[in-house]
Design goal:
Elements (H helix, E strand, L loop, with lengths): L17 H5 L4 H11 L4 E2 L12 H13 L1 H7 L9 H15 L13 E4 L1 H13 L5 E6 L3 H9 L3 E8 L2 E2 L1 H13 L6 E7 L12 H14 L6 E5 L25 E6 L11 E4 L5 H11 L5 H12 L2 H27 L7 E2 L7 E5 L11 H8 L2 E2 L1 E2 L16 E5 L5 H18 L15
Helix pairs in contact: 3-11, 5-11, 6-10, 8-9, 12-14
The protein binds pyridoxal-5'-phosphate.
Pyridoxal-5'-phosphate binds next to α6.
Length: 447
């Protein structure tokens, strides 16, 4: 007897896991697609780096060097370990010592506390994956890095958010929240606090020195039956254009117990090599390593060799200086254009970041910046794109998020497009400006 195969149009559905069903497309993907589809659009949305300053010559020279030596090339083109290339972990540790201005011993660290990952995003994912069961709690800033809050959502975690101000996450609010969770007997569900400690995505703000110390003290105090960790995401740390260099939160964790510190080669060097590294606190490295074994059992070895060489031959440091000079110029151009074109109003304000790639713009509450709102569409019609602030907020109990903010990036946009981009944006704002009473400025350094 002949079996009839169902044709594709009436075949039964693919049944996804609970996690598969919870996982949604990152909202920014559609925005980036819109930008790619229209070459005339000025995109102030993408968190991509500046294409003109990518280290083409440096990478060409390094790959030629490492591949023209046959013995080394055979090594470079082979798998390495899940933990990551040993000499790279040593170079990265030396690099971290320079950034912290302290020897590794003072930080309680060796190269074996470090894991190399496929971008810092993989480290964020793996850490969340090994720590969180559905219903577990993560405390994050409001607003926060929306790609990672999407990850948390897909893992079924409950994100409890605390406000942000000019000094970064409000750590007093974190302390109050932990007291409250303790009183509700839910403290055991709190697994970690997520903090983008330097030049945050999306606000551009950094956690103040005082708050870094307080945060460690708070997690230590509330770690009664289990350790509450801090996941310190320092993706933008090295893109500092002015202001004082701050130590990481990790720096105040000398026994390496409470902080997982993630950093990346994407922002200070090149996203195309997609490499990150994480200092793991005691007890977390092996679970993450085993999970990474399930994912890829090691990041691309050739990329790790490129990263190793750029740190060794000094091209990383030289390139970073070039990048910072260019980004500083672009940041200044964006701030100057905002000052010049935005209508003067106490309700219109923006952050003045000392580093990173983002400016956070707040508009009067009457102006809806949401993807479905008039502002977004009119900006698109005028050929300018931004990230609606709504994506960056955790909804309140009623499911609402503020809809009068936007994230502007000076990373990828060409220098000479920044002023016209802001001018177009300001035209739409002017058009819609409603004369509401001014609200106090929470973001600090506001215009
Ligand atoms: C705050 C933050 N963390 C982590 C990442 C991940 O970057 P990568 O995986 O390229 O290291 C990004 C990328 O934009 C980011 O903005």
């Amino acid at each position: 007897m002949q079996m009839t195969m169902p044709n594709s149009s009436n075949s039964p559905p693919v049944v996804l896991s609970a996690k598969g069903k919870r996982t949604q497309e990152a909202p920014i993907s559609a925005l980036i697609a819109a930008a790619v589809g229209n070459p005339d659009l000025i995109s102030l949305a993408a968190g991509l780096v500046d294409p003109l300053t990518l280290p083409v010559e440096e990478c060409l020279a390094i790959t030629q060097r490492i591949l023209s030596d046959r013995a080394r090339a055979q090594h470079v083109l082979q798998y390495d370990t899940t933990l990551g290339l040993k000499p790279l972990r040593h170079e990265v540790l030396a690099h971290l010592q320079r950034l912290e201005g302290r020897p590794a011993e003072g930080l309680g660290l060796t190269a074996d506390d470090l894991i190399i990952t496929t971008g810092s995003q993989q480290a964020l994912y793996l850490i969340a994956d090994v720590l969180l069961d559905p219903g577990d709690i993560v405390i994050a800033g409001n607003p926060s890095y929306f790609v990672f809050t999407g990850t948390l959502q897909s893992l079924g975690a409950q994100v409890i958010s605390v406000p942000m101000d000019a000094d970064g996450m409000d750590v007093d609010a974190i302390e109050r929240m932990l007291h409250e969770l303790h009183a509700r007997r839910q403290l055991d569900r709190v697994k970690f606090i997520y903090c983008v400690s330097f030049f945050d995505n999306p606000t551009g703000l950094s956690l103040s020195l005082e708050r870094r110390k307080r945060l460690i003290e708070i997690v230590r105090r509330f770690s009664r039956t289990h350790r509450i960790l801090i996941l310190e995401d320092a993706a933008y740390r090295e893109l500092r254009y002015d202001g004082e260099a701050l130590p990481s939160i990790k720096c105040f964790d000398p026994a390496n117990e409470f902080v997982a510190l993630t950093q990346t080669f994407s922002k200070p060097f090149a996203p195309g090599i997609k490499l990150g590294y994480t200092v793991m606190p005691k007890g977390l490295l092996n679970p993450v390593l085993h999970q990474k074994g399930n994912h890829d059992f090691g990041s691309a070895n050739i990329c790790q060799h490129i990263a190793l060489e750029t740190l060794r031959d000094g091209s990383y440091a030289r390139h970073l200086d070039v990048l910072k000079a260019e980004y500083r110029r672009k940041r200044d151009a964006m701030l100057a254009a905002l000052q010049r074109y935005m209508p003067p109003s106490a309700e219109i304000r923006w952050t003045h970041p000392h580093g990173g790639l983002y400016v956070w713009l707040t508009l009067p509450a009457s102006i809806n910046t949401a993807r479905e709102g008039f502002m977004f569409q009119q900006c698109l019609d005028r050929g300018v794109l931004y990230v609606p602030g709504e994506y960056c907020f955790t909804p309140d109990a009623a499911g609402n998020v503020p809809r009068n903010h936007m994230r502007l990036s000076f990373g990828q946009v060409a220098f000479n497009q920044i002023e016209p981009g802001i001018q177009r944006l300001a035209e739409v704002v002017r058009h819609h400006l409603a004369g509401h009473a001014s609200a106090p400025c929470a973001w600090g350094g506001c215009a």
